[in-house]
Design a protein that fits this description.
alpha/beta; Spore Coat Polysaccharide Biosynthesis Protein SpsA, Chain A; 60s Ribosomal Protein L30, Chain: A; 5-stranded mixed beta sheet; 12 helices
């Protein structure tokens, strides 16, 4: 039986993050099949029953990226890193101090293809005598060159390429970081070596690569590349326009619209949110809004339609889904939507944790034809695209 002490991992994601091509997304937040590089790491360690705590160390400039991940995963509060990897690891260790940690793993966020067997083997080999690193034996011939002229060959017989996660006794690694503060080391294992500790090597796999350049990302897409499960849903709704009673207001996409008429319905009758909710439910095969929130149920009377949209969003998250894009069309003669579209997009962005440039809202008329043309009602149509990781 496991004792009361815990095992933890620090995932170091505090680097500025190399940009790939024209993308402005740091490499640790690059998506592959609907899941970010960092999330692949989080899932790998979450799936290890011997890991009790996951501590992310991040760059505060990437707050918007980490906030989206925190919406999906139950993690310790991330801590801000420093100018160097060494400082960042120390910040992670300080955050875990006092949590009765026995064994600690340090892992680079840029290595998303880490396997459960390697994590387990690293943990199992940590002892009072030995720290542990996964490593690959060097197979290529090695040459030493200055100014592109080879000066000598280097014997590769006993050379290894160090990888992560590296494993240590928590107290020993914390001691090394505090003792060697201000000095520069290539990795945590080098710090343990400096204070006289012993490092054991376990064999790693060649596909535990570290993302460094755009070509690495392409390779990782192949390694992690199951065929993406991309789904599209369509939603449609219509509500009647009536004179307001009991201070009822007109809402579209959660934004109050200035108009002499309001929409009639059991809830707040936000026709745009209803159409979008149905589109999201349709994309994951979860029926329609009426099945989840029947108008015969009085608890939904006059309720804010944001409740419906959040419900659909949470169902998508439960299926490990990510919204890729939504396209919404509002159809009416009046009121005019242009003054409100920016506010609508921002509100939907906040509710769905979706980048605002992935949300499109259009408005059109029916050239005074039909019930919308006669200003008897407003209709809305929505398409949503999601990906299931």
């Amino acid at each position: 039986m496991k004792d009361s002490q815990k095992n933890a991992v620090i995932i170091v994601a505090a680097g500025n993050g190399m940009r790939f091509g024209d993308s402005n997304i740091p490499k640790q937040y690059q998506p592959i099949n609907g899941k970010t590089i960092l999330e692949y790491n989080i899932d790998a360690f979450s799936n290890c029953p011997e890991i009790d705590l996951i501590q992310i160390v991040y760059n505060i400039e990437h707050q918007s990226f980490i906030d989206i991940i925190l919406e999906k995963h139950d993690l310790l509060q991330p801590v801000q890193g420093g100018k160097t990897r060494q400082i960042s690891v120390l910040q992670g260790l300080k955050a875990l101090e006092g949590k009765d940690i026995d064994k600690i793993l340090i892992h680079d966020a840029a290595r998303p293809n880490i396997s459960l067997p390697v994590i387990t083997e690293v943990l199992n080999n940590i002892s009072g005598e030995y720290s542990v690193i996964p490593a690959l034996k060097v197979s290529d011939s090695l040459k030493y060159s200055d100014s592109n002229i080879i000066e000598k060959s280097i014997d590769r017989e006993n050379l290894y390429r160090s990888q992560t996660p590296q494993g240590f006794k928590f107290k020993k690694l914390f001691e090394a970081h505090n003792k060697l503060k201000g000095q520069d080391f290539s990795d945590d294992a080098a710090m343990i070596e400096n204070i006289g500790g012993k490092i054991k090597i376990i064999s790693d796999k060649i596909d535990n690569i570290k993302l460094t350049n755009p070509e690495d990302l392409k390779m990782m897409q192949k390694l992690l590349g199951n065929t993406p499960d991309i789904r599209t849903g369509f939603g449609y709704d219509v509500h009647q326009l009536v004179k307001p009673e009991n201070d009822r207001k007109l809402y579209l996409c959660g934004i109050e619209i200035n108009h002499e008429l309001v929409l009639k319905g059991h809830s707040d009758a936000d026709v745009a949110m209803h159409a979008l909710t149905d589109a999201l439910l349709g994309a994951i095969g979860e029926g329609d809004i009426g099945e989840h929130f029947p108008p015969s149920d009085n608890q939904w009377k006059d309720v804010d339609s944001q409740v419906f949209l959040e419900h659909a969003y949470n169902l998508i998250k439960e299926k490990n889904g990510t919204i890729l894009n939504i396209d919404l069309t509002i159809i009416c003669e009046k009121p005019k939507m242009l003054p409100y579209k920016k506010l609508m997009k921002q509100n939907l962005s906040n509710i769905l944790n979706l980048e605002i440039d992935r949300i499109n809202i259009k408005a059109t008329t029916t050239e005074k034809l039909g019930f919308a043309g006669r200003m008897e009602g407003i209709e809305a149509k929505a398409i949503a695209t999601i990906i299931i990781a």
